[in-house]
Amino acid sequence: MTPYRRWTLRTENTVYTVRLSPDGPWAELDAWGPHGAEDGPSALDWSRRTHFVTPADAAPAEYLPHGLRPFGGADLVASRPGAERGVWWDFEDARTEEGTLRLAFHDAVLGLRAVLCYATVPGTDVILRWTELTCTGDEELRLERLDSAAVTVPLTGPARLTCLTGQWSQEFQLTQLDLPRGTFTMGSLQGVPGHAYAPWLAVQDGQADAAYGVALEWSGNWHITAEAVPGGTVRVRAGRVPHEGAVVLSPGQTLITPRLACAFSPDGLDGLSRVWHRHERHLAGERLHRPRKVLYNSWEATGFDVDAEGQLELARAAAGIGAELFVVDDGWFTGRADDTGGLGDWYPDPAAFPAGFGRFVDEVRSLGLDFGLWVEPEAVSPGSRLHAEHPDWVYRIDNRPGRLVRNQLLLDLGRPDVQDFVTGTLDRLLTEYDVDYLKWDMNRPPTERGRPGAGPVDRLDLDAQHVTGYLRVLDHLRTAHPDVTIEGCAGGGARVEHATVARTDVVWPSDNTAPLDRLSIQYGFLHAHAPHVMSSWVTDAPGIFDPRPRSLAFRFVNAMCGVLGVGADLRAWTPGQRAEAARWISRYKEVRDVIHHGEVHLLGTPDDPTFGVQYDHPASGRTVVAALGTGRLDGAPLVPGRPSRLRLRALDPGARYHDAASGTTYGGAHLLHYGLPFTWSAGHDADLVVLTRR
After folding, report:
1. Four-point Cα dihedral 321, 319, 485, 328, nearest 10
2. What is the pLDDT of residue 373?
3. H or E segment at 214?
């Protein structure tokens, strides 16, 4: 019989076991892995053999404050005025319900209660973790670090970390590094997750197949830190980062940290991706079953030169190739001749729509198209009427100049009156006009983040207030306009995380739509996020980082790996190109339920001469393979006499699979062992294969 208390949370295929440490008043990980991993001695008990550090610093602790953990990275740093900096707590109680666990600790001297919270996500292998911090004393507390949680992964060698890195137009690049010793930290102080890193990390034991992952559900400043602890573990902690350096907690006040999603798969990064996909399908709820319509967006065709006649010409062309939704991007509102004005004055430009905007919307809809609109609700132009009437609504520091980024300022969305303005504006647009789709963009970070007249900035927690305001508006849109599809965008993929994904229908991974550039973006994106949220367009954009030309077919097959859209200037396309586009769109509509709801396997990498994405939909018996030729296109096989092949995965080796397009029937074992054959050429560099199980 164990001498300590122990609790096990069970997901569909995994267990997560926590125990009270025998060495002190803290919780620590006992087991995390497949069902049965909890049976036997803990793989983390090496921590008892150590010198020159405290047991708390060596322990696989779930969450520990500075004070108890003086040398290792503390997850919580708290103090009160005139008192020591640190927390020394005692275990208070544990509460369990189906799929949940709450472990409470209390520091009576400091006046702080911390509750470590756990919850399983039904139908997935994800466990959510967060912490609730309450000031129980008579004096306020100052929280300098307030992480959500920490997780510990046992290792036999160097930790293999996988993260998603990049920059604007090159987001979600799959990046790997080994961490034999030391600390790796990534994050953002830009008020959004940012382009440089996604709040997602995977950890493996060297080259071992099993993969552990975390993803932070937070739309503001954040960090994820991995520390290779001497002795054989890597400890990952994550949380939001206060813009002001600390958060003040008043007596009786409770702060709830963002949720950290924790996932495990025995099948490596590919298996871990499917765990995250199931989680995001759970986040979508009933909205998952609404078809994501094929859209056309007019931005790359017209830029700011928006008028009814030109937009209708594009809408007619879009309807002709089978698009289902027409989205007018930037440039439709007053004062928006270029990027120097108009933001904040969200009224259609009467000069651009002389017969009225409502009439224009009706004409678009008469073509059989839904109608969508681009907005940037957090931004304001200095010359706008809104800024003239409410100069106090922008982030500003007293006696300091405001800084223009992209010729605009940022509204302080943490203010309730600004939130009311944004919700009122969007309500008006969505009620006055028949709008089915709203693209919410954000194109600049907060810079001079102050709120004049509101008191000391270190008591405002402006980052969290902005996030709360942003999510409040999105929640309002979901409730007040449930039939409107919402797209999340922030200068491309700068705000893609679970809080946004849970409140939108699709997100925009990057402003870069060039074919091979986009392929690497989507490859990384699909490791962390599901196909049904990945908006992807076909355009004529040339490559920025990989300029090799690719066909229209390649662009379509690549974009069909998620939610298909078109953004090219259709007026410049030949009749042949439009006809080809119509054929691809028709094929996509036949299989989008498989792509959006199927189990995904990433076949190779974009660096391979042939790369593919496989989607399995057992309910319909269909498997869809998007195959893309990324290597030589001269028709010569990579190995003389042999075509390129994609070995498929997870098929029934005893079943037969029929490709109606070619009339070929394959055995499941053949597809698993030899794969689908492809011979690429300049005229044939991509294919979409649909296999039906017989």
Report:
1. 110
2. 98
3. strand 211-216
Distance of CA 637 to CAs 30, 116, 603, 632, Å? Answer: 51, 57, 19, 9
Say whether pTM exceeds 0.70. yes
Given pLDDT bands bounded at 50, 70 and 90, which one contains residue 43? confident
Contacts of 233 (CB under 8 A, 6+ apart): 44, 46, 60, 152, 153, 154, 155
User: Can you state the percent helix, strand and coil of the chain, rounding each to 5?
Assistant: 25, 35, 45
CB-based contacts of 55-58 (< 8 A; 24+ apart in sequence): 55/21, 55/23, 55/24, 56/23, 56/24, 56/26, 58/229, 58/231
Closest by alpha carbon to 89, among 73, 71, 67, 72?
A: 67
Q: Rounded to an integer, what distance in angstroms lies between the CA atom of residue 631 and that of residue 139?
A: 65
Structure tokens at 455: 């008191």
Report the DSSP beta bridge partners of residue 131.
116
Q: How far apart are CA 64 and CA 23, in angstroms?
A: 13
Q: Identify the H or E element spanning 645.
A: strand 644-646
CB atoms inside a 10 Å sphere around CB 681: 13
- Mean pLDDT value across residues 564-586: 98
Look at strands 76-79 and 141-146 and give their pairing: antiparallel
pLDDT band for position 448 (cuts 50, 70, 90): very high
Which pLDDT tens digit goes with each residue over 148-181? 999 999 888 889 999 999 999 999 999 999 999 9
Confidence of residue 41 (pLDDT cuts 50, 70, 90): confident
Rounded to the nearest 10 degrees, how much is the dihedral formed by the CA atoms of 21, 27, 28, 32? 130
pLDDT in tens, 215-259: 999 999 999 999 998 778 999 999 999 988 999 999 999 999 999
User: At residue 490, what are phi and psi to the nearest 5 degrees?
Assistant: -145, 85
Higher local confidence (pLDDT), 71 or 90: 90
What pLDDT does residue 47 have?
52
- Residue 356 gets the label, from left (phi > 0), alpha (psi -120 to 50) or beta, of left
**What single-letter amino acid sits at 574?**
T
DSSP alpha helices (H): ranges in 414-513?
416-432, 462-480, 498-501
Indicate the residue type of 283: L
Judge whether residue 459 has pLDDT over 90: no
Placement of tokens 């208070």 in the chain? 92
Dist CA 248 CA 244 (whole Å): 10
**Paired tokens of 40:** 């036997």
Q: In sequence order, what are the beta bridge partners of 293? A: none
Distance CA 439, CA 490 (A): 10
Residues written for the chain: 694
* Nearest residue to 504 via CA among 489, 518, 494: 489
**Six-digit token pair at 505?**
């229908």
For residues 288-308, give the mean pLDDT: 97
Predicted local distance difference test score (pLDDT) of residue 1: 33
DSSP letters for 301-369: HHTT---HHHHHHHHHHHHHTT--EEEE-SS-BTT-SSTTS-TT--SB-TTT-TT-HHHHHHHHHHTT-
Per DSSP, what are the bridge partners of residue 224?
186, 238
CA distance 513 to 207: 33
Partner residues linked to 610 by β-bridges: 629
Buried b (16+ CB within 10 A) or exposed e, 49-77: eeeebebbbbbbbbbbbbbbbeebbbbbb
Residue type, 364: V
**CA distances from residue 292 to 393, 485, 503 in whole angstroms, order as listed:** 35, 9, 15
